[in-house]
Write the C-alpha coordinates for this entry.
Amino acid sequence: MRVSRLSYNEAVQASDQRELLLNLVRLRYTEAPEFLQISSISTQMNFEASAGIGGEFGEVEANNSSFVTPGASVGYSESPTISFVPRRDQEFTRQLVTPVELDSLYLLTSYGWGVDRALLLIAREVNGISNISTREYSSFAGHDQQTFQKLIMLMRQLVAERLIAVDVQRRRGVVSAHIPHDSVSVEDFMKVHEEGYQLEENAEKTGYILAQDRRNYVMSVDAKAWGRPGLTAVTDVLNIKANQPFYEMDGKGKARGDGIHLTTRSVLEMMAYLSNAVSVPEDHAGLVDANVATNPALQQYMNIRVSKSPREDMFLAVKYRDHWFYIIDNDLESKRTLGLLTSLIR
Protein backbone atom coordinates (compact mmCIF):
# COMPACT_ATOMS: atom_id res chain seq x y z
CA MET A 1 0.00 0.00 0.00
CA ARG A 2 2.86 2.39 0.74
CA VAL A 3 4.03 1.98 -2.84
CA SER A 4 0.80 1.53 -4.76
CA ARG A 5 -1.66 4.01 -3.30
CA LEU A 6 0.47 7.09 -3.95
CA SER A 7 1.45 5.79 -7.37
CA TYR A 8 -2.21 5.47 -8.38
CA ASN A 9 -2.94 8.89 -6.92
CA GLU A 10 -0.15 10.48 -8.95
CA ALA A 11 -1.23 8.64 -12.11
CA VAL A 12 -4.84 9.84 -11.78
CA GLN A 13 -3.75 13.44 -11.23
CA ALA A 14 -1.34 13.40 -14.17
CA SER A 15 -3.86 11.80 -16.53
CA ASP A 16 -6.58 14.30 -15.52
CA GLN A 17 -4.26 17.22 -16.24
CA ARG A 18 -3.11 15.77 -19.56
CA GLU A 19 -6.72 15.17 -20.61
CA LEU A 20 -7.59 18.78 -19.80
CA LEU A 21 -4.57 20.07 -21.72
CA LEU A 22 -5.48 17.87 -24.70
CA ASN A 23 -9.03 19.26 -24.71
CA LEU A 24 -7.71 22.84 -24.73
CA VAL A 25 -5.55 21.97 -27.72
CA ARG A 26 -8.52 20.30 -29.46
CA LEU A 27 -10.62 23.43 -28.97
CA ARG A 28 -7.84 25.54 -30.48
CA TYR A 29 -8.10 23.32 -33.55
CA THR A 30 -11.91 23.74 -33.55
CA GLU A 31 -12.54 20.18 -32.42
CA ALA A 32 -14.89 19.00 -29.70
CA PRO A 33 -13.48 18.08 -26.27
CA GLU A 34 -13.88 14.61 -24.86
CA PHE A 35 -13.87 13.57 -21.19
CA LEU A 36 -13.37 10.16 -19.63
CA GLN A 37 -14.22 9.47 -16.02
CA ILE A 38 -12.35 6.88 -14.00
CA SER A 39 -15.27 5.00 -12.50
CA SER A 40 -13.21 2.51 -10.49
CA ILE A 41 -9.71 1.29 -9.75
CA SER A 42 -9.24 -2.15 -8.25
CA THR A 43 -6.13 -4.22 -7.85
CA GLN A 44 -5.01 -7.57 -6.54
CA MET A 45 -1.68 -7.67 -4.75
CA ASN A 46 0.30 -10.84 -4.03
CA PHE A 47 3.40 -10.94 -1.86
CA GLU A 48 5.42 -14.11 -1.29
CA ALA A 49 8.58 -14.60 0.71
CA SER A 50 10.57 -17.72 1.46
CA ALA A 51 13.91 -18.54 3.08
CA GLY A 52 16.11 -21.61 3.30
CA ILE A 53 19.52 -22.77 4.36
CA GLY A 54 21.81 -25.49 3.01
CA GLY A 55 25.48 -26.49 3.06
CA GLU A 56 28.17 -29.12 3.46
CA PHE A 57 29.51 -30.29 6.76
CA GLY A 58 32.65 -32.34 7.57
CA GLU A 59 36.08 -32.55 6.03
CA VAL A 60 36.50 -30.62 2.84
CA GLU A 61 39.87 -30.82 1.09
CA ALA A 62 41.47 -32.35 4.14
CA ASN A 63 40.42 -29.44 6.31
CA ASN A 64 37.97 -29.77 9.10
CA SER A 65 35.63 -27.15 7.55
CA SER A 66 31.93 -26.57 6.97
CA PHE A 67 30.11 -24.45 4.40
CA VAL A 68 26.68 -22.90 5.07
CA THR A 69 24.62 -21.45 2.19
CA PRO A 70 21.60 -19.31 3.16
CA GLY A 71 18.96 -18.56 0.51
CA ALA A 72 15.87 -16.34 0.28
CA SER A 73 13.35 -15.28 -2.35
CA VAL A 74 10.77 -12.50 -2.47
CA GLY A 75 7.97 -12.26 -5.02
CA TYR A 76 5.52 -9.40 -5.56
CA SER A 77 2.83 -9.03 -8.22
CA GLU A 78 0.01 -6.57 -8.80
CA SER A 79 -2.92 -6.89 -11.22
CA PRO A 80 -4.79 -3.57 -11.57
CA THR A 81 -8.16 -3.14 -13.28
CA ILE A 82 -9.15 0.42 -14.21
CA SER A 83 -12.59 1.24 -15.60
CA PHE A 84 -13.24 4.32 -17.75
CA VAL A 85 -16.64 5.77 -18.65
CA PRO A 86 -17.13 8.44 -21.37
CA ARG A 87 -18.75 11.51 -19.80
CA ARG A 88 -21.52 12.17 -22.30
CA ASP A 89 -24.55 12.04 -20.03
CA GLN A 90 -27.08 14.83 -20.06
CA GLU A 91 -26.22 16.09 -16.56
CA PHE A 92 -22.51 16.46 -17.29
CA THR A 93 -23.22 18.20 -20.60
CA ARG A 94 -25.61 20.58 -18.85
CA GLN A 95 -22.95 21.42 -16.27
CA LEU A 96 -20.43 22.15 -19.02
CA VAL A 97 -22.66 24.57 -20.95
CA THR A 98 -24.55 26.27 -18.09
CA PRO A 99 -23.07 29.59 -16.88
CA VAL A 100 -21.51 29.17 -13.45
CA GLU A 101 -23.12 30.72 -10.40
CA LEU A 102 -21.66 33.73 -8.65
CA ASP A 103 -20.78 31.59 -5.64
CA SER A 104 -17.97 30.11 -7.75
CA LEU A 105 -16.26 33.52 -7.78
CA TYR A 106 -16.75 33.87 -4.02
CA LEU A 107 -15.50 30.37 -3.20
CA LEU A 108 -12.46 30.58 -5.48
CA THR A 109 -11.33 33.96 -4.15
CA SER A 110 -11.99 32.84 -0.57
CA TYR A 111 -9.86 29.76 -1.19
CA GLY A 112 -7.00 31.97 -2.34
CA TRP A 113 -7.22 32.29 -6.11
CA GLY A 114 -6.55 35.80 -7.41
CA VAL A 115 -9.66 37.85 -8.19
CA ASP A 116 -8.11 38.89 -11.51
CA ARG A 117 -7.55 35.28 -12.58
CA ALA A 118 -11.04 34.23 -11.47
CA LEU A 119 -12.74 37.14 -13.25
CA LEU A 120 -10.68 36.58 -16.39
CA LEU A 121 -12.10 33.06 -16.64
CA ILE A 122 -15.57 33.44 -15.14
CA ALA A 123 -16.79 36.87 -16.27
CA ARG A 124 -18.20 37.38 -19.73
CA GLU A 125 -19.18 40.96 -18.95
CA VAL A 126 -18.92 43.32 -15.96
CA ASN A 127 -21.12 46.42 -15.94
CA GLY A 128 -21.25 46.42 -19.74
CA ILE A 129 -17.48 45.92 -20.15
CA SER A 130 -17.01 42.84 -22.29
CA ASN A 131 -14.41 40.16 -21.75
CA ILE A 132 -13.75 38.20 -24.95
CA SER A 133 -16.05 35.18 -25.05
CA THR A 134 -16.94 34.45 -28.67
CA ARG A 135 -15.22 31.60 -30.50
CA GLU A 136 -15.64 32.94 -34.00
CA TYR A 137 -14.35 36.20 -35.44
CA SER A 138 -13.00 37.39 -32.12
CA SER A 139 -10.43 40.11 -31.80
CA PHE A 140 -8.41 40.92 -28.69
CA ALA A 141 -7.52 44.43 -29.76
CA GLY A 142 -10.86 46.01 -28.88
CA HIS A 143 -11.34 48.83 -26.39
CA ASP A 144 -13.48 46.67 -24.09
CA GLN A 145 -10.76 44.05 -23.66
CA GLN A 146 -8.17 46.66 -22.75
CA THR A 147 -10.60 48.23 -20.27
CA PHE A 148 -11.43 44.82 -18.78
CA GLN A 149 -7.74 44.03 -18.37
CA LYS A 150 -7.19 47.37 -16.64
CA LEU A 151 -10.13 46.67 -14.31
CA ILE A 152 -8.97 43.24 -13.14
CA MET A 153 -5.41 44.44 -12.57
CA LEU A 154 -6.67 47.32 -10.43
CA MET A 155 -8.85 44.92 -8.44
CA ARG A 156 -5.94 42.50 -8.05
CA GLN A 157 -3.85 45.20 -6.36
CA LEU A 158 -6.69 46.30 -4.08
CA VAL A 159 -7.40 42.71 -3.01
CA ALA A 160 -3.70 42.14 -2.34
CA GLU A 161 -3.75 45.16 -0.01
CA ARG A 162 -6.95 43.82 1.66
CA LEU A 163 -8.89 46.93 0.69
CA ILE A 164 -11.65 45.14 -1.23
CA ALA A 165 -12.99 41.57 -1.16
CA VAL A 166 -15.71 39.44 -2.70
CA ASP A 167 -17.93 38.70 0.29
CA VAL A 168 -21.30 37.20 1.20
CA GLN A 169 -24.09 38.66 3.31
CA ARG A 170 -26.94 36.54 4.68
CA ARG A 171 -30.31 38.26 4.64
CA ARG A 172 -33.75 37.07 5.69
CA GLY A 173 -36.38 37.43 2.97
CA VAL A 174 -40.14 36.84 3.06
CA VAL A 175 -41.24 34.55 0.23
CA SER A 176 -44.97 34.08 0.91
CA ALA A 177 -48.15 35.91 1.75
CA HIS A 178 -50.07 35.48 5.03
CA ILE A 179 -50.63 31.81 6.02
CA PRO A 180 -53.43 31.13 8.59
CA HIS A 181 -52.49 29.24 11.77
CA ASP A 182 -55.00 26.46 11.22
CA SER A 183 -53.66 25.61 7.75
CA VAL A 184 -50.20 24.62 9.00
CA SER A 185 -49.37 21.20 10.47
CA VAL A 186 -46.32 19.87 12.30
CA GLU A 187 -45.38 18.02 9.12
CA ASP A 188 -45.40 21.36 7.26
CA PHE A 189 -42.89 22.79 9.72
CA MET A 190 -40.62 19.81 9.20
CA LYS A 191 -40.89 19.89 5.43
CA VAL A 192 -40.17 23.59 4.98
CA HIS A 193 -37.17 23.24 7.29
CA GLU A 194 -35.80 20.42 5.13
CA GLU A 195 -36.21 22.66 2.07
CA GLY A 196 -34.23 25.49 3.68
CA TYR A 197 -37.16 27.73 4.69
CA GLN A 198 -38.65 28.83 8.02
CA LEU A 199 -42.26 29.36 9.08
CA GLU A 200 -42.45 32.40 11.34
CA GLU A 201 -45.33 34.21 12.98
CA ASN A 202 -46.20 37.50 11.38
CA ALA A 203 -46.06 40.78 13.26
CA GLU A 204 -49.79 40.71 14.10
CA LYS A 205 -49.57 37.12 15.48
CA THR A 206 -52.47 36.16 13.22
CA GLY A 207 -50.64 33.58 11.11
CA TYR A 208 -47.36 32.65 9.58
CA ILE A 209 -45.07 33.82 6.81
CA LEU A 210 -42.57 31.73 4.91
CA ALA A 211 -39.03 33.12 5.14
CA GLN A 212 -35.65 32.13 3.79
CA ASP A 213 -32.06 33.09 4.46
CA ARG A 214 -30.52 34.25 1.19
CA ARG A 215 -26.88 34.64 0.29
CA ASN A 216 -26.20 38.04 -1.25
CA TYR A 217 -22.80 38.50 -2.80
CA VAL A 218 -21.12 41.88 -2.49
CA MET A 219 -17.83 43.59 -3.10
CA SER A 220 -16.97 44.93 0.34
CA VAL A 221 -14.74 47.99 0.63
CA ASP A 222 -12.50 48.91 3.55
CA ALA A 223 -13.08 52.50 4.72
CA LYS A 224 -9.32 53.15 4.44
CA ALA A 225 -9.49 52.46 0.68
CA TRP A 226 -11.34 55.63 -0.23
CA GLY A 227 -9.05 58.28 -1.59
CA ARG A 228 -6.74 55.67 -3.12
CA PRO A 229 -6.24 56.21 -6.88
CA GLY A 230 -6.76 52.51 -7.59
CA LEU A 231 -10.22 52.38 -6.04
CA THR A 232 -11.23 55.65 -7.67
CA ALA A 233 -10.22 54.18 -11.00
CA VAL A 234 -12.30 51.03 -10.33
CA THR A 235 -15.45 53.03 -9.52
CA ASP A 236 -14.88 55.18 -12.61
CA VAL A 237 -14.46 52.15 -14.89
CA LEU A 238 -17.52 50.41 -13.41
CA ASN A 239 -19.49 53.68 -13.39
CA ILE A 240 -20.62 53.24 -9.77
CA LYS A 241 -20.86 55.70 -6.91
CA ALA A 242 -17.89 56.16 -4.60
CA ASN A 243 -17.78 56.01 -0.79
CA GLN A 244 -20.03 52.96 -0.37
CA PRO A 245 -19.25 50.26 2.25
CA PHE A 246 -20.19 47.53 -0.25
CA TYR A 247 -21.62 47.00 -3.70
CA GLU A 248 -24.26 44.42 -4.58
CA MET A 249 -23.05 41.75 -7.02
CA ASP A 250 -25.28 39.72 -9.28
CA GLY A 251 -24.24 36.86 -11.55
CA LYS A 252 -27.00 37.40 -14.08
CA GLY A 253 -26.26 41.01 -14.88
CA LYS A 254 -29.18 42.32 -12.82
CA ALA A 255 -27.72 43.72 -9.61
CA ARG A 256 -30.04 46.21 -7.98
CA GLY A 257 -29.24 49.89 -7.96
CA ASP A 258 -25.65 51.02 -7.99
CA GLY A 259 -24.10 47.55 -8.04
CA ILE A 260 -21.79 45.28 -10.00
CA HIS A 261 -23.56 43.48 -12.82
CA LEU A 262 -21.80 40.25 -13.86
CA THR A 263 -22.65 37.92 -16.69
CA THR A 264 -20.83 34.63 -16.21
CA ARG A 265 -19.44 32.03 -18.58
CA SER A 266 -19.95 28.30 -18.70
CA VAL A 267 -17.04 25.94 -18.07
CA LEU A 268 -16.97 25.04 -21.78
CA GLU A 269 -16.85 28.74 -22.64
CA MET A 270 -13.92 29.20 -20.25
CA MET A 271 -12.09 26.31 -21.90
CA ALA A 272 -12.72 27.80 -25.33
CA TYR A 273 -11.34 31.10 -24.08
CA LEU A 274 -8.21 29.49 -22.64
CA SER A 275 -7.64 27.55 -25.85
CA ASN A 276 -6.56 30.84 -27.41
CA ALA A 277 -3.41 30.56 -25.30
CA VAL A 278 -2.34 27.50 -27.33
CA SER A 279 0.58 28.27 -29.63
CA VAL A 280 0.26 26.86 -33.13
CA PRO A 281 3.20 25.78 -35.34
CA GLU A 282 3.62 27.60 -38.64
CA ASP A 283 2.83 24.51 -40.72
CA HIS A 284 -0.58 24.28 -38.97
CA ALA A 285 -1.68 27.79 -39.95
CA GLY A 286 -4.48 26.45 -42.14
CA LEU A 287 -5.79 24.10 -39.44
CA VAL A 288 -6.92 26.76 -36.96
CA ASP A 289 -9.25 29.73 -37.19
CA ALA A 290 -7.20 32.60 -38.57
CA ASN A 291 -9.71 35.10 -37.12
CA VAL A 292 -8.78 34.14 -33.55
CA ALA A 293 -5.84 36.34 -32.71
CA THR A 294 -3.27 35.83 -29.98
CA ASN A 295 -4.27 37.52 -26.74
CA PRO A 296 -1.19 39.02 -25.02
CA ALA A 297 -3.16 39.65 -21.81
CA LEU A 298 -4.30 36.04 -21.66
CA GLN A 299 -0.77 34.73 -22.12
CA GLN A 300 0.17 36.31 -18.79
CA TYR A 301 -2.08 33.70 -17.18
CA MET A 302 -1.81 30.74 -19.55
CA ASN A 303 0.88 29.95 -22.10
CA ILE A 304 0.74 26.59 -23.88
CA ARG A 305 3.84 26.19 -26.01
CA VAL A 306 4.50 23.85 -28.93
CA SER A 307 7.56 21.86 -29.99
CA LYS A 308 8.32 19.24 -32.59
CA SER A 309 10.11 17.07 -30.03
CA PRO A 310 9.96 16.58 -26.23
CA ARG A 311 11.90 18.94 -23.95
CA GLU A 312 13.41 18.39 -20.54
CA ASP A 313 11.63 21.38 -18.95
CA MET A 314 8.12 20.11 -19.74
CA PHE A 315 5.84 20.04 -16.69
CA LEU A 316 2.80 18.78 -18.60
CA ALA A 317 2.69 17.73 -22.24
CA VAL A 318 0.46 15.98 -24.79
CA LYS A 319 1.29 14.85 -28.30
CA TYR A 320 -1.17 16.03 -30.92
CA ARG A 321 -0.84 16.08 -34.72
CA ASP A 322 2.80 15.04 -34.49
CA HIS A 323 3.70 18.00 -32.20
CA TRP A 324 4.15 18.35 -28.45
CA PHE A 325 1.97 20.93 -26.69
CA TYR A 326 3.21 21.68 -23.21
CA ILE A 327 3.52 23.91 -20.15
CA ILE A 328 7.04 24.44 -18.86
CA ASP A 329 7.90 23.53 -15.29
CA ASN A 330 8.66 27.06 -14.06
CA ASP A 331 5.54 28.64 -15.57
CA LEU A 332 3.71 29.17 -12.28
CA GLU A 333 1.00 31.37 -13.81
CA SER A 334 -0.09 28.66 -16.24
CA LYS A 335 -0.04 26.07 -13.45
CA ARG A 336 -2.28 28.26 -11.30
CA THR A 337 -4.74 28.87 -14.14
CA LEU A 338 -4.87 25.16 -14.93
CA GLY A 339 -5.54 24.44 -11.25
CA LEU A 340 -8.35 26.99 -11.14
CA LEU A 341 -9.98 25.49 -14.25
CA THR A 342 -9.67 22.01 -12.74
CA SER A 343 -11.41 23.24 -9.57
CA LEU A 344 -14.28 24.68 -11.62
CA ILE A 345 -14.75 21.46 -13.60
CA ARG A 346 -14.83 19.43 -10.39
